[in-house]
Write a structure and sequence with these properties.
Length: 160
Amino acid sequence: MRILLAYCSLSGNTRDVARMVRARCEALGHAVTWIETDIQTLASVCPDGADHDLYVLGAWTDNAGRTPVEMKRFIAELVDAVGKPRQLAAFGTGETQWGAEYYCGAVRRIAAFFGTDYPTLEIEQMPHGERDALKIERWTDTIVARTETPPHADPARFVA
Ligand SMILES: Cc1cc2nc3c(=O)[nH]c(=O)nc-3n(C[C@H](O)[C@H](O)[C@H](O)COP(=O)(O)O)c2cc1C
């Protein structure tokens, strides 16, 4: 599959998670288009079109649960290019000290904006140890598997 992974990161936490997601995608045999929204545009990385099988967007969370402006700009460009893809997963980092209401708010906002039913991945600050590594690996496996074998629109088909 062709996977587009775009992320924004102020101090490196989200970049660390993004690198782990990319490494897992590549270990599973997929090609990853890597975009740092702080310094790159979609058009500059994908001049021949942005079509991919899976879109993965990662963001840190800004004041009061907001999406950083660089990611908002990227999302506007993505929607112009490909609309709102169904195959889209959001991840990010945040800090619980901002309150449960705002924790990783950007991840939730991005998922809600695209109306995706893929699971989200939220990491407190930076990935720590085996536990977070496993969480990131499992999440990546889940979103990849779901893209390769989407749940059928009619679950009754599988009953009986
Ligand atoms: C100005 C500012 C506002 C923040 N507001 C929130 C917030 O509302 N919710 C949250 O979960 N984290 C908030 N954070 C914490 C960051 O999202 C968190 O440290 C994140 O891991 C930074 O990721 P990065 O290293 O990729 O930039 C805020 C950080 C800053 C600097």
